[in-house]
Prior knowledge:
Elements: H1 2-21, E1 25-33, H2 40-51, E2 60-66, E3 72-79
Parallel strand pairs: 1-2
Antiparallel strand pairs: 1-3
Amino acid sequence: xxxxxxxxxxxxxxxxxxxxxxxxxxxxxxxxxxxxxxxxxxxxxxxxxxxxxxxxxxxxxxxxxxxxxxxxxxxxxxxx
Length: 80
């Protein structure tokens, strides 16, 4: 499933970013293009399923829907 692959890659990316910064990530901001085919609700549902039981399960995820642009873009990472 496309969404599962995307969320798995996001979690791997967050692992690398947190390890690199040596600080805990508390929030990420994501932009989804309307042309990408993933609604904010659908994205969050898959993200929460993949993150369940991991250190990311309580991560604050802000999703912004934009009319055009990249399918998915992480626009900000906030550290604790």
